[in-house]
Structures are given as structure tokens and as C-alpha cells.
């Protein structure tokens, strides 16, 4: 396993001086995830075993050496095959930072390059991600890590690599007008109790109409979307040193066990373990 992780465990790297990037390496993992999103551009690679990567529209079997690029906001799940285990790497990057870095390097990136799921089996791309994680998890200075990040991203996104096959046929959707206000409300008030009946009235639909429309536009139900927002917010608060019990309360979970269960279903670690390993 790359980047110094130990067998059967996951390891995180995060530096408060570099809040635009986070990396995870897992070895011999059997953990499964519910469909979820990230507010980041996410780049993953399979080190061992096989994975079933699914979006709202299709499922792809990933093999060792495969690298998948996932745009921000894309609903997805990436799990080992049934009754099997796998090893992988996952890099999360702030999309605005990525754009700034590439622009500073004079690299022109088409919007589609950051808006669709793509898979590449190019050995040099996989090797590049492995080298990058080796640098990130090392004691190298920040300037060295930033340079490694910029070089990897320029090679991955700047060359319009024809070996990268588009695997998700549609871009992450923009909610239709009748749901746009509801989505904005969920983002602004995701820590508050927002009953489905109340949300449906606000959208001028029945509860069942809302669930169908929301799932069609955003790939999950309003409740799942709200939980997703809470968990992504929780990750930020945990990295900043917040206490899990306090975070559970601030984010509107009924109790700490509810928070732990929802967090583990999407991150494959308890909040405390995530905080410890990303520290």
C-alpha cells in the first residue's frame, strides 16, 4: 500500500496549511459506502483487488491501476466486490484551487474536463498519483508538495488525455427551477430539522412528487442529500479539532450514535477515528 499506510487500515493526510487538499490511503479494506457526494474534485486509484464504482447512471468495475476522476457534486459509491477486499487511494481537491493552479501554469482546461466522471488505465497516470501521495505523506516542505500537486494535475487534466474514457454519460445536473430554491435552502440550513412535508409544500409538490423529482435531478432523496451536506460539514469541523459530540449537536443529529452511523456509512470510519487519522 502506498503512502505509509498499514495493512487493513486507512490513513489520512491533511495539513491545515494546505486546506485545499486531503488524501486517504486504505489497505485491504472491506468497508462499503452509501451513495454520496463530495464538494471537491476527487481522484481515486485502485491499488489491489477490484472495485465497483457506481453513479446514478451506470456501474463500472475498476481493476488495479485504474484511476477515476470524479467531479464535485457527483453522486457516486465505490465499494469492493461482494465478500471481497480492496486497497485504494483517494485524493480530494478544492475545485477553485485546482483552476487557479492550472491557470498559473498556463494550462487551459475545458469545462468538461472537470464536469464528467472519467476513468483511465494509463500506467503513467497511476504511477503519478502514487508518487504524489508518497510526497504528500512525507515530511517534504509545503512548496515541494504544492509543486507535486500542480505537476500531477497538469498532466492529468491539461493534456485532454484520450486514454481517459468518459464513463458517466451526463454531467452533474443543475436542479430545475422549482428545486433550485429548495437546494439552496438545504445548503443554508442543513443542520436544521426540515420535514419532508414542509419541503414539499415549499416546492409546490406532494411528498412523493418531490422525492421523485429530487432523485431524478440530484441522484438522491432530499433526506439523503441533507445528510450528505452534514457529513461533509462534519469532516471540516473534525479536521479543525471539534469534539464529535458537539459536532453531532451543532449539525442537528438526534444523538451521537446517529451521527456516528451516518458518518461511517459515508466515510467508512467513525468521526473520532477520522479525526485521529487526519490529524
TrEMBL record:
PROSITE patterns referenced in this protein's UniProt entry, alphabetically: HTH_ARAC_FAMILY_2 (PS01124)
Gene Ontology molecular function, alphabetical: DNA-binding transcription factor activity; sequence-specific DNA binding
Keyword Transcription regulation: yes
Keywords carried by this UniProt record: DNA-binding, Transcription, Transcription regulation
Domain HTH araC/xylS-type: 180-277
Keyword Transcription regulation set for record: yes
Source species, domain of life: Bacteria
Protein name (database record): Transcriptional regulator, AraC family
Organism: Cupriavidus basilensis
Amino acid at each position: 500500500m502506498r503512502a505509509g499506510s498499514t495493512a487493513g487500515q486507512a490513513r489520512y493526510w491533511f495539513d491545515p496549511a494546505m486546506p485545499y487538499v486531503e488524501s486517504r490511503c486504505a489497505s485491504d479494506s472491506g468497508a462499503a459506502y452509501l451513495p454520496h457526494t463530495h464538494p471537491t474534485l476527487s481522484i481515486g486509484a485502485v491499488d489491489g483487488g477490484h472495485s465497483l464504482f457506481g453513479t446514478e447512471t451506470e456501474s463500472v468495475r475498476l481493476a488495479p491501476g485504474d484511476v477515476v476522476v470524479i467531479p464535485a457534486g457527483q453522486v457516486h459509491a465505490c465499494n469492493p466486490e461482494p465478500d471481497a477486499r480492496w486497497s485504494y487511494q483517494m485524493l480530494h481537491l478544492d475545485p477553485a484551487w485546482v483552476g487557479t493552479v492550472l491557470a498559473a501554469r498556463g494550462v487551459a482546461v475545458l469545462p468538461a474536463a472537470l464536469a464528467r466522471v472519467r476513468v483511465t488505465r494509463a500506467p503513467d497516470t497511476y504511477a503519478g498519483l502514487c508518487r504524489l501521495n508518497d510526497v504528500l505523506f512525507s515530511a517534504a516542505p509545503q512548496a515541494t508538495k504544492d509543486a507535486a500537486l500542480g505537476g500531477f494535475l497538469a498532466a492529468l487534466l491539461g493534456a485532454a488525455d484520450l486514454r481517459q474514457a468518459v464513463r458517466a454519460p451526463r454531467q452533474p445536473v443543475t436542479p430545475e427551477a422549482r428545486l433550485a430554491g429548495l437546494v439552496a435552502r438545504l445548503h443554508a440550513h442543513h443542520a436544521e430539522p426540515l420535514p419532508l412535508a414542509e419541503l414539499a409544500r415549499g416546492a409546490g409538490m406532494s411528498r412523493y412528487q418531490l422525492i421523485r423529482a429530487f432523485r431524478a435531478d440530484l441522484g438522491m432523496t432530499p433526506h439523503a442529500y441533507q445528510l450528505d451536506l452534514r457529513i461533509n460539514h462534519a469532516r471540516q469541523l473534525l479536521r479543525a479539532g471539534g469534539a464529535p459530540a458537539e459536532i453531532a449537536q451543532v449539525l442537528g443529529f438526534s444523538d451521537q450514535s446517529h451521527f456516528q452511523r451516518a458518518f461511517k456509512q459515508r466515510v467508512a470510519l467513525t468521526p473520532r477515528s477520522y479525526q485521529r487519522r487526519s490529524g
